[in-house]
Amino acid sequence: MCAVSKLSLPEQQGNRALKPTITIWRSHLRRLLGIGRGSPLRRRLRFAVLVVISQLLLIALAIAWLIHMIIIAVNGSIYFVERNPFILWIEVIATIFIILFATSIFITQLRRLGERRRDDEKRDGQN
Which of 40, 45, 41, 33 is nearest to 102 (CA)? Predict the structure, then answer.
């Protein structure tokens, strides 16, 4: 006889509440960063995409810094004013997120430097 599995409803689970939003966001962030389970190819592909994004942000930062240096070289000084405090705080928050993102990618890269891959073990066995 074939067993049919039913989708369990929250009422059937002893009225347990759904996961809090913070836990859901944390699981999405862990999945995005490639932490936890998943196929190695998919995990490596996600990490490669994150590294490319991190490098693009670094290039954008370098270009912005170069533009500032050129303006200083031409005019002798540089002075920026943001009159709208809402836009200023959005820029500050975006900068903080970019710093946190780059730091997490850097830490993940450092951790992966010491990892042994399957093909490393094969090479060690042949030598």
Answer: 33
Tokens of 38: 């998943």
Calculate the CA 13 to chain-centre distance: 34
Give residue-wise pLDDT tens across range 43-69: 778 888 888 898 898 888 889 889 989
Which amino acid, 3?
A
Structure tokens at 58: 């670094």
The reported pTM is 0.53
Name every residue whose Cβ is closer than 8 Å to that of residue 30 and which is 6 or more positions away in sequence. Answer: 36
3-state DSSP call for residue 32?
helix
In whole angstroms, give the CA distance from residue 107 to residue 47. Answer: 12
DSSP letters spanning 58-124: HHHHHHHHHHHHHHHHHHS--------HHHHHHHHHHHHHHHHHHHHHHHHHHHHHTPPPHHHHHHH
CA 45 to chain centre: 13
List the structure tokens of 87: 């836009």
